Amino acid sequence: MTYLSSKWFGPQLSRMVLILTGIALTQQASIDRGNFYTAGVVEFRRENEWRNNLDGYVEIINSQNASATDIIVFPEATLNGIDSASLVPQPEQQINPCLMDPQFQMYAEFLVQLSCAARNASKYVVINLSERQLCSDTPEDTRPCAPSGYNIFNTNVVLDRHGTVVSRYRKVNLWGEPRNTTWTPESVSFETDFNVTFGHIICFDIMFFKPGHELIAQQGIRHFVFPSMWFSQLPFLTAVQVQSSWAYANNVTLLAAGSSRPEVGSSGTGVYRGGDGTTVSTMQAGEGQRHIYVAQVPKYEENGNKSVGKQLRSVGSQEFKMKRDNLELYETIALDTLMERVNGTSAKQEVCHGRICCHFELEWRLMGQESTASSYNYNYRLAAYDGWRDEESGDTNYVRNCAVFACIGPDLADCGQLVGDLQPRVAFDRLIIEAIYPKSREFLLMPNSVLDNLLPLEPGQFEWLLEELENENELQLRFALTKSLDTENLLTFAIYGNYYDDECTFGAGTPEKDLECGFKPKDDGAASLRFSNFILLTLSLTLAILFE
Questions:
Q1: Annotated catalytic residue within 98, 116, 171, 407
Q2: What is the tens place of the pLDDT at every residue in 233-274?
Q3: Which residue pairs from 517-526 have beta carbons closer than 8 angstroms and sit at least 24 positions apart in sequence?
Q4: Cα separation of 519 and 527, whole Å?
Q5: Torsional class of 389: left (φ above 0), alpha (ψ -120 to 50), beta (otherwise)
Q6: Is 337 exposed, middle or buried (0-12, 13-18, 19+ CB in 10 A)?
Q7: String of DSSP letters for 149-177
Q8: Minimal CA–CA distance to 448: which of 399, 488, 497, 486?
Q9: Taking 90 as the threshold, does the pLDDT of residue 548 lie above it?
Q10: pLDDT per residue over 453-481, tens digit each?
Q11: Mean pLDDT in the chain?
Q12: Bridge partners (DSSP) listed for residue 295
């Protein structure tokens, strides 16, 4: 048996520990690289000249902040316009514009230069551009063609680490845009060398089943790129509010890049990890910005919140142009009215509209010295709505909403506004919304919230529970502030039920239609059978008495 001397044992053991520690650290680093990727999402203010925008894109791609990224996503409509629309190669052709068209003979200069930038930086780069394609290239499309002979598309283009065009997606759901749609709507995904497959959606697409929700339901896509030029709308559809709630409800990762023009209501960028919440997000006021936000993103689902929001103070209308939903369609009751009815600081109330009934439970405390409403306070309304969204600039969708939203005055017209320097009349110590929602062929139920800094509540700040009822045709939904949380700067707290085209929604049509859509009969037909048996028994007894 050989013994180790103490002279050897001390320093050699220390050396071995260091070596082994180094091995362990190296292995851990390798595991991290294997389980995570690094994403950059860009908030970008566009200028009128595409060369200026191109320079800004290339500067960001080459920046120190972007150095660790595997993939960078730029916003919608911040590169070029219709007058500089470019041809885009089919991904199947595996064309590298940087290498194959250095003189810009086939493709626009900005596409070639960005291909070179992606190649030089060795990153996946997602850009959105105005694309042109000859109408004659799609003879199956029998719709009229423009005099120019070209279709113009709102298009995502993905460049891989070599600068090759590996994916192209043309926006399906246009929002008041002078662009074309493809003859057959597209649902497009792309693979990467870091073993993550991404789906495409662009801005207004997020309000519809196709393509995003369809990619989740039919292909199991769990990661999405989302260039947008979103125009925020209170109380339900500010940019980060929508991005966060969509990612949470679908439990997917969303890489959202937003156009940065707060003066027209456009901002909102972030990385969202489904049920784990926000990794990073921003809503810009004032002049907007050109900035990349970088986050390490798990490739697979994991537990735990790691939320980092770029906080804003309360935002006023002079800094951010805000659209407003047509809340006059909603059935509402003012919290002031409830406060006058009850003797205390809590209330229960039901508000119904159409086929949706919303049950609210509230506890509050008055803020400051003011015990009554004043011009210095904003308060809230409880609301319900079952109907089509009032959307002027594009296709609309059917919603079933239960909500509490802020109002800067006593009238419904005062709701859905930025509160600026106003202070809340109350802070909520308890806030619960419960409702029974029908199932549908295509629908998405989302927790929907936003604070006065235009950022939403995070998963640790609320409870979201869905339970299927015994009839299997409806869901019991509960949305509540966490018991440990009280909030005094809430603008919206709502269940947002997006029913898309409202086709095959349980109870919306006849019983025959429900059966045709695959729903079970109410009580599996037992109630009808019992009623029929009762009628037959009554009839038999009546006949027996008559013929005695």
A1: 171
A2: 999 999 999 999 999 999 999 999 999 999 999 999 999 999
A3: 517/441, 519/439, 519/473, 520/471, 520/472, 520/473, 522/471, 522/473, 523/471
A4: 16
A5: beta
A6: middle
A7: SEEEEEEEEEE-TTS-EEEEEE-SS-BS-
A8: 497
A9: no
A10: 999 999 999 999 999 998 899 999 999 99
A11: 88
A12: 39
| 66, pLDDT greater than 50 | yes
458 is catalytic: no
Query: Residue 394 gets which letter from DSSP?
Result: B
pLDDT for the residue 368: 65
Residue 470 DSSP class: T
Catalytic residue, from 43, 76, 131, 177: name it: 76
46 band by pLDDT with thresholds 50, 70 and 90: very high
How many Å apart are CA 493 and CA 405, to the nearest integer? Answer: 6
Q: What is the dihedral of CA 157, 177, 280, 303, to 10 degrees?
A: -80
Average pLDDT over residues 420-447: 96
Q: Which two three-digit tokens encode residue 7?
A: 């002279």
- pLDDT (average), residues 391-414: 92
Q: Quote the CA–CA distance of 204 and 472 in Å, as a whole number.
A: 31
Distance CA 345, CA 532 (A): 50
Question: Catalytic residue among 116, 123, 131, 203, which?
Answer: 203
What is the structure's pLDDT at 449?
A: 98
Task: Name the one residue in this structure whose structure tokens are 């659209």.
Answer: 323
Distance from C-alpha of 194 to C-alpha of 187, rounded to nearest angstrom: 22
7 in catalytic set: no
The amino acid occupying position 180 is N
What is the arrangement of strands in the sheet containing 36-44, beginning at the earlier edge strand? 165-170, 150-159, 124-134, 71-73, 36-44, 290-298
Q: What is the mean pLDDT of residues 353-377?
A: 82
Angstrom distance (rounded) from CA 188 to CA 198:
9
Task: Give the CA distances from residue 137 to residues 80, 90, 142, 157, 318, in Å, rounded to whole numbers and listed in that order.
Answer: 23, 12, 12, 19, 47
Distance between CA 407 and CA 326 in Å, rounded?
14
Residue 133 near residue 150, CB atoms below 8 Å: yes
* pLDDT-above-90 percentage for the chain: 78
**520 is a catalytic site residue:** no
- Degrees to nearest 5, angle at CA 155 with 92 and 309: 115
CA angle 221, 223, 228 (to 5 degrees): 115
Inform me whether the pLDDT recorded for 315 exceeds 80. no
HEC readout, 21-89:
HHHHHHHHHHHHHHHEEEEEEEEECCCCCHHHHHHHHHHHHCCHHHCCCCEEECCCCCCCCHHHCECCC
In contact, 383 and 338? CB cutoff 8 Å: no
Query: 189 by DSSP, 3-state: which?
Result: strand
* Whole-prediction pTM: 0.88
Banded pLDDT at 391 (limits 50, 70, 90): confident
Confidence of residue 300 (pLDDT cuts 50, 70, 90): confident
